[in-house]
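A reminder before we start the practical. When you read a complex entry, don't treat the lines as separate problems. The point of joint prediction is that each chain is placed relative to the others, so the output describes one connected object in space. Small molecules and nucleic acid strands, if listed, are placed in the same frame. In the example below there are two entries. Take a minute to note the order of the lines before looking further.
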Amino acid sequence: NAGVTQTPKFQVLKTGQSMTLQCAQDMNHEYMSWYRQDPGMGLRLIHYSVGAGITDQGEVPNGYNVSRSTTEDFPLRLLSAAPSQTSVYFCASSSSGANVLTFGAGSRLTVL
Amino acid sequence: GQNIDQPTEMTATEGAIVQINCTYQTSGFNGLFWYQQHAGEAPTFLSYNVLDGLEEKGRFSSFLSRSKGYSYLLLKELQMKDSASYLCAVREYNTDKLIFGTGTRLQVFP
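Here is the predicted structure of the whole assembly.
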């Protein structure tokens, strides 16, 4: 089992560019979520999904979109990147609900 | 919403015991989690408490008091590899959100 796979691991963007962070899990987990981690701020919840076709906002959703068309995939889209979105992004999943989370390895995004 | 507080940094000596505290204020509580995160890596699950009391798992134990909004993680027989950040997280009732505190960075010295 690969677990939770995030791509890319590193990305540099210019202000205003768009991109998608990919997240895929092969554990048939219903629950998936995206967090960002900044120094001194801890992990902050961006968006989450309790199952295919269902998404909801977390603590810091502005500037990000998500969709959940399949159980396996939960992409995070930045429509117009801003320097404030420079961060490390983690995708995480659990079998049901916000239970024990399995995290991906993280994606480090720099916006210039 | 949630307000979760942890000390920013702690230091301890190899072989010693350390207690990392976490206090929370929440509009609805449905469980508390502890995660460990080594520098540059993803968090990994350590423990879970939903009822009051102590949960023991090897060298690590976690305690919860729901009436006081308080939890602690106890690490015994500290090893150098325990140098990491320890994250407290609270699951909100009815929303399925897992909200993290800012984490406690623990440094273990020989």
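Discuss with your neighbour: Chain B has a mean pLDDT of 94. What might explain this?
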